């Protein structure tokens, strides 16, 4: 996987520059930046993270997120998406309180 990612990096860079599609959230896609994590209280443990790739997954995750917050009200809950269409349904990454 690492070798494939390295070999495909030039292609994705050209596509990102050409279509402006992949570079807007590259740090999040690579797991380098998640703004919601910095908003969590210090020392919070047991964080629940729901990651959705598409709009359909993001929408179906809403019910799951609500039920998890009901079952575990004291645990922080983070929801993240990767696609632009998934991000259009709400913030890319946010903490649910």
Architecture overview:
The chain is built from 5 helices and 3 strands; from the N terminus they run αααβαβαβ. The protein is of the alpha+beta class and 97 residues long. Strands 1-2-3 form a 3-stranded mixed sheet. It is elongated, with a radius of gyration of 15 Å. 11% of the residues are buried.
Q: How are the SSEs ordered, and which strands pair?
A:
Layout: H1 2-19, H2 26-29, H3 35-39, E1 48-52, H4 55-71, E2 77-81, H5 84-87, E3 93-96
Parallel strand pairs: 1-2
Antiparallel strand pairs: 2-3
**Average pLDDT number:** 77
Sheet/helix structural class:
alpha+beta
Please provide the count of β strands: 3
Taken from the alpha-carbon principal axes, the silhouette is: elongated
**Percent of residues in beta strands?**
5-15%
CA radius of gyration: 15 Å
Which sheet architecture does the biggest sheet show? 3 strands, mixed
Read across the widest sheet, the strand sequence of neighbours is: 1-2-3
The residue fraction in helices comes out at 40-55%
Number of helices: 5
SSE pattern, N- to C-terminal:
HHHEHEHE
Q: Which stretches are low in confidence, meaning pLDDT under 50 for 5 or more residues running?
A: none
């Amino acid at each position: 996987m690492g070798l494939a990612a390295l070999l495909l990096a030039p292609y994705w860079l050209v596509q990102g520059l050409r279509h402006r599609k992949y570079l807007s959230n590259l740090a999040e896609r690579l797991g380098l930046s998640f703004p919601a994590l910095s908003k969590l209280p210090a020392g919070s443990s047991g964080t629940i993270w729901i990651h959705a790739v598409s709009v359909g997954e993001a929408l179906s995750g809403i019910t799951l997120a609500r039920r998890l917050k009901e079952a575990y009200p004291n645990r922080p809950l983070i929801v993240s998406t990767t696609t632009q269409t998934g991000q259009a349904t709400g913030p890319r990454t946010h903490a649910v309180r």
